[in-house]
Amino acid sequence: MDDPEQTPSVPSAPNALWPDTPGHRVLFLLDASSSFEEELLKEWIDDHRPSGAPRTDEALTIPSSRRRYQRKLDPRLEAALAVGDDPLLAPLRVVWQPAQRGGVRVARFSDLLTFADPRDPGSLRQRWIIRRHPDRVAIVAGEPAPLSELRHRWQSAADKDAAQTVGVAEFVARQAALALERAERRLRGARYKVPRFVHEEILNRPACRGGIVRLAREVGSDEETVKRDAARYLHEIAATHSTYVIDLVANLIRLLYRQGYGALHYDRAGLAQIYSLAQRHPVVFLPSHKSNLDHLVLQYALYENGHPPNHTAGGINMNFFGVGPLMRRSGVFFIRRTFKANEPYKFVLRQYIDYLIEKRFPLEWYIEGGRSRSGKLLPPRFGILAYVVDAFRRGKSEDVFLIPVSIAYDQISDVGDYATEQRGGAKERENFGWFLRVVRRLRRRYGNIHIRFGIPVSLAEQLGPPNPEAEPNPDEDSLALQKLAFEVSVRINRATPLTPTSLVTLALLGVPDRALTVDEAVVALHNLVEYAERRPLPTSGGFDLTSREGVRGALDVLVQSGVVSRFDGGIAPVYSIGPEQHLAAAYYRNTIIHFFVNLAICELSLLKVANDGEPGDGTAAFWNEAMQLRDLLKFEFFFADKDRFRDELMDELASQDAEWESFLQRGAAGARELALRSRPHAAHRVLRPFVEAYRVVADALLLERSVKPLDEAAFHKRCLGLGKQYHLQRRIRNAESISKVLFETGLKLARNRALVEPTVDVMERRRLFAEELRDVIRRVDQVGGFAANRFTVLLE
């Protein structure tokens, strides 16, 4: 039996060595959460004192690093620092770790069920662990420093800021705690690299103190009020990491996503490269936003590979009971949806971003702002990116790397909600009940999740070197900022993989008004798959749409989720997408249509040349129409600049036929022949819903006779009604064209063309806009006819 009076010796971490003390006495600073830990640290000092060394060392406690314990400063520390010599200050801490499993020390879900943090045991449990599992305990030593050096650092901070009020004892205790954090991180790993003393460090920074003084003058308030507001806003915004919650949430995430998904696929080598990059520069993860699981699965992939948790911007609407506290303690910082008129709030947010960039903590947010309801990547939002760019511009880091991230799903549980919202339904408010419903829906199987990392974007390469003398200016209207966000979005799209679900829905929506057997579906997919291989386009793992088995499997999965209907009453099962399923199916198709947009523009531009029938070379007419279509669709897709766009279209045409220029030179006949050769035909699959929705907007504007400013909510409601009427009359073919999201973009385009506000000639210009769209739709119908004829021939 164990001797209850004898405590096993505590092992030291590899870096826990007796400090080298030539000419200095040693003052040990003990970060102890209990009297028992203090005893262990003092025993370590006695056990590790070099042989023959005089007992001139002392040991004093500093405020415990564990926030649930007393954090008052020991008054003896200030007295010890006032002695005239120059002691070497050496921090020590006891580290408690989870049990080792498979060579790794991370808290498992079974450890966490008791809600007892294995890294922060209570006093009684500390004694039990050290007797039963001494391998779970270690002493770590922070980098020692002479008092003279620390006093010089303290004085430098005071010189830079006359309002500096932190005494030398408080400064020494904080520096000791930070040194211990670095030492402990080397033992535990980067997975737990989290900031400490965030509020103290930010609010006591000279830039923050000086900024508060200036801000008080600008807003006409007293300094104390602004300082109090700043502290309150920082408390509202900042994440408060907990290693216990980081482990707890990682276990909960795995439990959650595995309810509905089989596997999480991502590139481990790519993550390793990002980890290496993050050792030298701040990194910002900018993922696409398709599902409520996006942040969670990315967080788990990073955790699984030993990355520190991202500081992730979340809307304040997600800070609700039961979820908000866990998110904040695992790395989410909450920001308000709108705060443009709140200068103190903007000031605090800028200070927080500056701090994270300076300290090289990774960031994350959705560049789209919110979840895509259509499946297509949304236009970027510039808010937080403007703050990061501003921090870089002012020299808070030599470079910052933006990491484009595509998160794709075979299927998602949210797609039904998105279809409802596109039909005009209200977005469900986030609360604990909503969260439980999200979890409950994951009881079905949705396939796999695919995370892909795009090529990082360097701010130094895109924007040039920083200027530390620059004044703060997070300008959201900056053209350079908008180009930067555009480039990130393009790289997200390029990294997005084709999944069986996305390509099957693309194929089925391209053959409307008929059901397909498995063999017919294989035929419908053939040219799409061949195009993906020829370009080549990224695909998800296990991608097989060339065999009957692979296609049937993909179709049956869509049948199970209700996106596709199957009829078994004939001689062979047939599959179709009904009108009520169009928006759900279109969601999956839209995740990949950016790969086919240039091909669709080529087809429509060729048919413009063919239909107009102008004699002679049709090259100029082709390029003129291509640029007009680029302008028509500029709010839907991320087009390259005009010169690069021309190069992309030439590459697209060359992939169809190396002699494409000679076809255009033959005029209308050559252009029509080249359009017929397109493999696959794309315009009817890709562009029909957008141009049909725009047509509804154009016709609704023609009916708008009021001279008052347009009521957008009422206008969108009228578009929904008009769209339903047109679909019943077969004036538009696709039910997915009746979409609030598309009507909003169509109105944005009309406003860009000055067609919304009433002017003298606005009705004529609205009429021309409507006629332009009808002409485009007629050509889309032509491409659809080409595709239908080809499909019929292939089936015969």
List keywords for this structure.
796 residues, alpha/beta, 52% helix, single chain
Q: Tell me the strand percentage band.
A: 5-15%
Count every beta strand, where a strand is a DSSP E run of 2 or more residues. Answer: 15
Described by strand count, sense and barrel closure, the largest sheet is: 8 strands, mixed
The backbone outline, from C-alpha atoms, is: elongated
Question: Can you count the helices?
Answer: 33
What average pLDDT do the residues reach? 88
Query: What does the radius of gyration come to?
Result: 32 Å
Please give the alpha-carbon distance between the first and last residues: 86 Å
What can you tell me about this protein's structure?
The chain has 796 residues and is α/β, with parallel strands linked by helices. It contains 33 helices and 15 strands. Strands 6, 7, 8, 9, 10, 11, 12 and 13 form an 8-stranded mixed beta sheet that branches. Strands 1, 2, 3, 4 and 5 form a 5-stranded mixed beta sheet that branches. It has a two-stranded antiparallel ribbon with strand order 14-15. Strand 1 (26-31), helix 1 and strand 2 form a beta-alpha-beta unit. The longest helix is centred in the last third of the chain and has 34 residues, at 762-795.
